Amino acid sequence: MRAGQAAAAAGVSVKALRYYEALGLVRPGRRANGYRIYSDEDVRAAAELRQLMALGLTTQEAEPFVECLRAGHDAVDDCAESIAAYQRKIDQLDGLIDRLSQARDRLRERMGQAARRGFRTLPATAASREDDGMLPRPALLPEGLPAPVDDGAARHLPGRTLPGLVLTATDGSQVRLDGVCDGRWVLFVYPLTGEPGVDVPRGWDEIPGARGCSQEACSFRDNLGQLHAAGVEKVLALSSDRAQYQQDLVARLHLPYRLLSDPQLQVADALSLPTFTTEVLPGAGSGQPQRLYKRLTMLLHGPRIEHVFYPVFPPDRHADEVLNWVRTHPVVGS
């Protein structure tokens, strides 16, 4: 077949076909009049080269695959040389990923330092004594966020007892869930928080109940004194965020309570808490599916779950909802 026909059959341009020929990867015959004549083998080689180059291989790196075809194999990677070429490319990409990951981490560290610059870093207990007008505020939630619906995934929780799991808190302590305190306390659970200076990825706002973690954290910060006055001994938060990131969040938002890190979602598995899986993630990036907590709040007395708020919406006013419930349901005998 002629060059135009061969290029169309292989899914490449005539220019690319001639380039492969110049490199010796495609070897057309010649008619008596000097015109090139391309065989089915030439078309197959050009098509395979197109696919390999789409995977990031150069024409030089793809040469062993073409030679494998010429040797009579049915597939371009039936040969040991082809497998070795795959491995060399994978090793090269691994090295590139490592270098890019290190550069990304350095950029994130510098971005975080820049975002926090100018804010005073206070001990967690000091934030509640600071004037509310001086506290850092997250951005307001956008209008029109979809409200989550009650799917019944938390109805089994009231009356249950927390497991004896030990989690790392933002003050560096190890907290055993069934031993937090003997009185009434609050554990609010959230998916994760975004990073300062990083835009919320497209699609995150469309997940019902996903947006608003920083706003919810600040609502409990601002209502902590009233919650204590209403008989709540402690407020803790739980998410799958890493402990180091939670510590940065406490410093950035001046949170006067501890956050618990549960990256393996052990509490969810122990209590069958509602979760969701998404590839759309703020800050950390997208592409890999990740299981996250759905937003809920447990009001507890000692280790026993007394009441559950689920679903939680809107998150920026949720602490007021908890406060109203506590005031209308005082502890018997208090």
Give a structural overview:
- It is elongated, with a radius of gyration of 30 Å.
- The longest helix is centred in the first third of the chain and has 37 residues, at 80-116.
- The protein folds into two domains: 3-88, Multidrug-efflux Transporter Regulator, Chain: A, Domain 2, CATH 1.10.1660; 124-328, Glutaredoxin (3-Layer(aba) Sandwich).
- It contains nine helices and eleven strands.
- A seven-stranded mixed sheet has the order 4-3-7-6-5-10-11, with helices on one face. A two-stranded antiparallel sheet has the order 1-2.
- Residues 119-131 have low confidence and may be disordered.
- With 334 residues, it is α+β, with helices and mostly antiparallel strands.
- Helix 1 packs across helix 3 (40-54), helix 3 packs antiparallel against helix 4 and helix 4 (59-70) runs antiparallel to helix 5 (80-116).
The major beta sheet can be summarized as: 7 strands, mixed
Helix segment tally:
9
CATH superfamily of the largest domain: Glutaredoxin
**CATH architecture annotation of the largest domain:** 3-Layer(aba) Sandwich
The end-to-end span amounts to 93 Å
By DSSP, the count of extended strands is 11
Strand content: 5-15%
User: Strand-and-helix sequence, N→C?
Assistant: HHEEHHHEEEHEHEHEEEEH
Structural class: alpha+beta
| Cα-atom radius of gyration | 30 Å
Portion in helices: 25-40%
Number of structural units classed as domains: 2
By CATH, the topology of the largest domain is Glutaredoxin
The chain-level mean pLDDT equals 86
CATH class of the largest domain: Alpha Beta
Shape designation? elongated
**Order of strands in the sheet with most strands:** 4-3-7-6-5-10-11
Uncertain spans:
119-131
